[in-house]
Amino acid sequence: MKVTVIGTGYVGLPTALVFADLGNDVLCVDKDEAKVAMLRAGQVPIYEPGVEALLRRSLDDGLFKVTPSTDEGMQHGEVVFIAVGTPQGDDGEADLSAVWAVARDIAKYICHYTIIVTKSTVPVGTGDRIEQILVDAAVDRSMFDVVSNPEFLREGTALPDAQHPDRIVIGADNQAAAHKLMELFAPLEAPVIITDRRSSELIKYASNTFLAIKISFINAISRMCEECGADVSAVARGMGSDPRIGNKFLQAGLGWGGSCLPKDVAALNKIAADLGYDFKMLQAADEVNEQQTRHFVQRLSDRIGGFQGKTIGLLGLAFKPNTDDIRDAKSLEIIEMLKAEGATIRAYDPAAAENVRAIHPDITYVNSALETGQDADAIILVTEWNEFKSLDLTRLGQIMRRKLIFDGRRVFTPYQIERAGFEYVTVGAKG
Ligand code: UGA
To answer: For a FRET experiment, which of 30, 243, 312, 424 has its CA 20 to 30 Å from that of 409?
Structure first.
């Protein structure tokens, strides 16, 4: 099938590559010419495991091409996916300016019957508005269908998620368009849910915000554990063994960040408010999330008598492992708090350090996890990169001023800590 994907970010690029890998003829459109040049040269502007190798293979196979021209994209695709960013705008509302700009371009260049598919996370009614933009531009109604097909892949595991989705949601008000998409997705052998477009748009927000609520729930329990001497991992294991609850997204930590959960919680809250519903549960989840990192940093401050004149090592800066993305990363909150209190910061991240340096050029970035500990009064583990799990704690202890670890993601085991003789504080346990 001839497929066009508009937008080559964390969602668009892996999605396009998976379609190419399945033998489709894929053309990506990105108006950023520098990005187009990089992709044509087989280079990926983002850090996402496996993507560069698949890009090179797909370029060699001739099944993946990229252009800055929407005109070319519209000539090419029988199905055109919109995968541009929908960041948080004013009042928490999703900023859809990129989607509207693409819709206007599509209206301008559409030249044969096309199925226009929204992959970006968009509020309920966005499909209707795209339809209206085309109609207002005098595009004949028989020339297109607008379908919602939300994406559920996660950063850091984008390729395996796109190759093996749990489900494929197709929101179409026209059965023929839905069937054409089913044909495209058939080789993935995933369960398909066909529904109306508005329900499909809401499924994406409902899913992401439910995940945020689930994490905030276990983080709220973690606060109780810290007071009553229970252990949150044991509680999560016990709860998660009930298949009605499930063990995923019950990892207590510093809270949820990233480019999706925070903006989607804000957006659904706004959508609900506009519909006259006060979604208190979402607001509470957000509040728990806000408090979680603040509370953790306060515990550290109490333990070491404030940050003035202290050196703190940060392990991990990305919002989660296996990505260089720092949007709404907990590390940024922590850096701001530590800087405000006069701490010296030594930070390390395998992929995201340069992105943080652009915002905080005044802190020290070191080249290895171990070096964060040099003369440090404490280490905070912020992101659970795999390499931190095997960090040589004995050597780390030898270079630190005080052997104190604040583990924000519950990575280290009691055995590792005891053997190296550290003081250890983690989320959801007394200490
Ligand atoms: C999220 C959803 O999981 C994807 O299904 C969705 O497609 C994507 O948003 C999107 O809308 O594009 P992502 O933002 O990549 O994916 O990251 P997650 O794996 O959901 O993690 C989000 C945050 O929650 C991270 O800060 C992570 O550290 C935190 N988290 C996750 C926890 O604190 N505990 C957990 O148990 C799981």
So the answer is: 243
Structure tokens at 63: 């099944």
Identify the CA nearest to 80 among candidates 7, 161, 183. 7
Q: Which fold would CATH assign to domain 196-431? A: Rossmann fold (3.40.50)
Among protein residues, the one with the nearest Cα to ligand 1's atom 7 is: 152
Identify the CA nearest to 6 among candidates 48, 69, 97, 86.
Answer: 69
Alpha-carbon distances of 224 from 206, 253, 280, 405, rounded to whole Å? 27, 14, 21, 21
Block means of pLDDT (10 residues each) for the chain, 431 residues, are 96 96 97 96 94 97 97 98 92 92 98 96 95 98 98 95 97 95 97 97 97 98 97 98 98 96 95 96 98 97 97 98 96 98 98 98 98 98 97 96 97 91 96 85
Please report, for residues 20, 137, 254, 321, the alpha-carbon distance to residue 381 in angstroms, rounded to integers and kept in the order given. Answer: 38, 53, 10, 12
C-alpha dihedral, 264 to 265 to 270 to 273, nearest 10° = 140
Summary count for the chain: helices (H), strands (E): 17, 14
Q: Can you give the pLDDT at residue 258?
A: 96
Query: Does residue 260 have an active-site annotation?
Result: yes
- Residue count of the chain, please give it: 431
Q: Rounded to the nearest 10 degrees, what angle do helices 280-304 and 330-340 cross at? A: 40
| Ligand 1 site, residue 345, Cβ cutoff 6 A | no
User: Ligand 1 pocket, 319 CB below 6 A?
Assistant: yes
2-194 and 196-431 share one fold: yes
The reported pTM is 0.95
3-state secondary structure of 206: helix
Exposed, middle or buried, 150 (CB in 10 Å: 0-12/13-18/19+)? buried
pLDDT on residue 336:
98
Ligand 1 site-directed mutation target among 84, 256, 296, most atoms within 8 Å of CB: 256
